[in-house]
Amino acid sequence: MISGEMESAGPDIAIVNATILPMGGAATIERGSLTIRGASIVAVGSATEVDVNGARRVIDAEGRVVMPGFVNCHTHIASNMLLRGLLEDVQLFEWLGTMWKLKRNFDPETLYWASLMGLVEMVKSGMTCFNEHFDAYAVTPQTEALKKMPLRATLGYGFADRGVYADVKDWAWKALDSFGDKVDAYHRSGNDRVHVALSPHAPYSCGPEMFRRVREVADAYGLVIHTHLSEGPQEIAYVAETYGTRPVQWLNDLGFLKPDVTAAHCTQLDDADIRILAETGTKIAHCPCCNAKLDSGTLRLRSVREAGITVGLATDGPASHNSLDMFQEMKFAGMIHKDKNHDVEFLKTRELLEMSTCEAAKAMNRPETGTLTPGQKADVIILDLDKPHCLPVYDVAAALVYSARADDVVTTICDGRILMENREVAGIDEAEIRARFRERALALRDRSL
After folding, report:
1. Residue 442 half-sphere exposure, CB side, CA atoms within 13 Å?
2. 56, 103, 247, 437: which has the fewest C-beta neighbours closer than 10 Å?
C-alpha cells in the first residue's frame, strides 16, 4: 500500500474497486482504493489496505481506471481557442502572421469566453494542470475563468518586442518593469492552484535585452519561465543570420537557461544544444502533433532522454494541434518516435503515460501533481474503457495510449474538487459557453480578416 498518516475523521472522497495507475514508477493496483481529504491524496492501495470508513462521498469505480490527471506542460488556451481551424497547410512564420491579425483585435470579453471554453475542453479530456503561454497579452480574462473552472495552472505572461509581435513592445516592457504587481495579485492564488510565470515568446520575437530582463525578474521573484525554443528551421535561420549562432547557444550565452525554464518544442537540437540543455537543467515540453503539422521537425527524444533532460508531453494550442487531447498526443508520440528511431521497443506505453502526467509536471515545475501518492494534490481522473474502441483490454496502459479517447474520461477531480462526473461538468451552463464563444469567435474573425 501507498499510504499517508490517517487522521481520525474519514476522508472527503473515497474511490473504490478501481484499477489504479499511480505513475511515478509505481505498479498498477488492481481493485484498489484511493482516499482524498481536502485538496490532497491521503492513501492509495488495495481495498484491504485503505480505510474508507466514514467517507463523505464514495465513488464506485468498478471496472474503471483511475490515474493522475493529465498535465499539459505547454499550451495556449484563450488565444488559440479563437484561432482553431482558421489557417491550415502553411509554415510556422506565415501561420503566425495571419494569426496576429486576429490577436490584435482581442478584447477581454472574447478572451474570457474563449478561456472558459478551453477550460471546459480540458476538464472533459482529463487535463487537470496546464502551462499557459499567453500570446494574447491579456491574462485577466483567464484568471477570471479559472475561478469558474478551477484547474491547476501556471499562467505565463507573454513578452515580445520585434517581428510580427512588435506592436506589443511598449506593453511588454512596462509589464516587465511592474511585474511585482502581477505577482502580488495572482501568484499562488486559488489555494495555490494558480501560479504566475514569465513567457518571453521566442528568440525571433524577443531581443537580448528582453531575455536578460526576464531572467532578472524571474530571479527576483522566484518565478518560472516558459518560452519557445528551437521550434523550427525558420527560427534556426533567423538566429544564425541575426546573431551568428544557434538559439540554444544564444540564450545560454545570455545567462538565461536554468532549471526554472520550460522550453517548448526543441525540434532543431544538435549535439551541442542537447549538452547545454542538460548542463543547465532546462526542461522540454514536447508537442509532437503540432510539430509534425507545421513541419517544424521532430524532437530527438532518445538523445535528450539519454542526456538526462526532463521531457513532458504537451498539446500546444488548439490553433496548431486543433484539440486539447493528450490521448492523441501520446499515440502520435509513440508512433512517430518508433518510426524515427527505427525501434519498436522505444517509448513504451508506460513511458508515454508518465510523460503525460508526472514527467510533464516536472517539465513545468509543478511537482505537487502528476502522481497518485499521499500528500500529492488530489488531481485524479476516472476512465471507462468498456467501449467498443478499447475492448478487449488485455493491457490497461496499451488501451490508454493507443485505443482510448478524451471522451472515455468520465470523472475529473482537481485539488480534491469534483469538476466533472459521468461526463457532466459541474457548476456551468456548457450550452451557453459554447454559444457565447462561437458568437464572439465569428465576430472576431469578421472584423479582423
Report:
1. 5
2. 56
User: Is residue 3's pLDDT more than 60?
Assistant: no
pLDDT in tens, 291-350: 999 899 999 999 999 999 999 999 999 988 899 999 999 999 999 999 999 999 999 999
Provide the 10 A C-beta neighbour count for residue 271: 10
**Alpha carbon distance 1, 68 (integer Å):** 17
**Alpha carbon distances (Å) from 61 to 18, 123, 372, 381, 382:** 5, 19, 16, 11, 8
Whole-angstrom distance, CA of residue 326 vs CA of residue 341: 22
Of the candidates 169, 119, 122, 175, the one whose C-alpha atom is nearest the C-alpha of residue 148 is 119
Give the SS3 label for residue 425: strand
* Residue 137 pLDDT class (50, 70, 90 cuts): low
Q: Which amino acid is at 447?
A: R
Dist CA 60 CA 63 (whole Å) = 9
Q: What is the amino acid identity at position 249?
A: Q
Distance (Å, whole) CA 54 – CA 56: 6
* 346 alpha carbon, distance to own chain's centre: 23
Instruction: Return the closest-CA partner of residue 435 out of 80, 120, 99.
Output: 120
Rounded distance between C-alpha atoms, residue 5 and residue 287, angstroms: 38
3-state secondary structure 127-162: EEEEEEECCCCCCHHHHHHHHHCCCEEEEEEEECCC
Contact partners, residue 390, CB within 8 Å, separation at least 6: 399, 403, 404, 408
Query: Strands, E, within 243-291: which ranges?
Result: 261-265, 283-286
Calculate Rg over the CA atoms of the chain: 21
CA 243 to chain centre: 31
Mean of the per-residue pLDDT values of the chain: 94
**Nearest to 412, CA basis, from 128, 57, 37, 15:** 128
